[in-house]
């Protein structure tokens, strides 16, 4: 009976996401911002009454969360797992041929938000660099842990890794990137890394889309700290410099 209920639940969620207007609403919320039903109606190209009906269904299935502030009502994704599921569905929805080329606007393909963490080419290469340098290590198939040198690297960026490990969500995990078809870094560590990049003005965030922009300072700092050479649209991993005693790159 439990398995039967599980199957019904999956079918209901899949059917809810499959409706095109609902898909557009959910994808628009993947930037982590809350939006009103009127804004979501415009995004989905439906009437406000139709949007309200769609949002009611999404709320019923715990895909979105309602926030009430005075007379204003805002909707956001229920939690990061919804964004991860949408990213995975985007991968499946693309043509899976070996000659796959992502049909994604350049700015979104380069760097964008995936709920509260970074996605796109830049995020995938940062993930790969963290793994290659031994800063990020596999804990199991769906989780990562930091090495001592990785912990030192992130503490040097004022990221409180010990606090992140106590939160009621995964500390660090792979999240499949739909434009690159390779994982980027999710979990509380991925979210903290994005917030650090925004706070230090390495990245700028669009107000009306999920796109992230790399600043000149960001290009310099990411190159120095992580060993990624970022030049125009061409991104290459440069030859690592010797590690300091603390386990971070010396410049």
Automatic annotation (TrEMBL):
One Gene Ontology term of the molecular function aspect: cadmium ion sensor activity
- InterPro entries, per the entry: ArsR-like_HTH (IPR011991), HTH_ArsR_DNA-bd_dom (IPR001845), HTH_Metal-responsive_Reg (IPR052543), WH-like_DNA-bd_sf (IPR036388), WH_DNA-bd_sf (IPR036390)
Q: Name one GO biological process term.
A: response to lead ion
Would you say which domain of life the source belongs to?
Bacteria
User: Residues in domain HTH arsR-type?
Assistant: 2-97
Which PANTHER family would you find in this protein's record? TRANSCRIPTIONAL REGULATOR-RELATED, TRANSCRIPTIONAL REGULATORY PROTEIN
What NCBIfam families does the record tag this protein with? HTH_metalloreg
> What is this protein's name?
Metalloregulator ArsR/SmtB family transcription factor
Q: Which organism is it from?
A: Pseudomonas hamedanensis
């Amino acid at each position: 009976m439990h398995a039967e209920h599980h199957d019904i639940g999956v079918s209901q969620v899949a059917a809810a996401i499959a409706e095109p207007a609902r898909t557009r609403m959910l994808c628009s919320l993947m930037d982590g911002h809350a939006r009103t039903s009127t804004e979501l109606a415009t995004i989905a190209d439906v009437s406000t009454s139709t949007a309200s009906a769609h949002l009611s269904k999404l709320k019923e299935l715990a895909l979105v969360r309602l926030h009430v502030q005075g007379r204003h009502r805002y909707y956001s994704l229920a939690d990061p797992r919804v964004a991860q599921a949408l990213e995975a569905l985007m991968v499946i929805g693309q043509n899976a041929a070996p000659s796959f080329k992502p049909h994604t606007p350049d700015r979104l393909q380069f760097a964008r938000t995936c709920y509260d963490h970074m996605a796109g080419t830049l995020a995938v290469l940062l993930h790969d660099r963290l793994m290659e340098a031994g800063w990020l290590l596999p804990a199991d198939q769906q989780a990562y842990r930091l090495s001592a040198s990785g912990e030192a690297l992130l503490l040097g960026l004022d990221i409180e890794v010990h606090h992140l490990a106590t939160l009621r969500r995964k500390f660090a995990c792979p999240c499949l990137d739909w434009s690159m078809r390779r994982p980027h870094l999710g979990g509380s560590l991925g979210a903290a890394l994005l917030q650090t990049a925004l706070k230090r003005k390495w990245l700028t965030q669009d107000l009306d889309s999920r796109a992230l922009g790399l600043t000149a300072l960001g290009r310099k700092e990411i190159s120095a700290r992580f060993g990624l050479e970022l030049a125009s649209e061409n991104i290459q991993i440069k030859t690592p410099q010797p590690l300091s005693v603390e386990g971070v790159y010396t410049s």
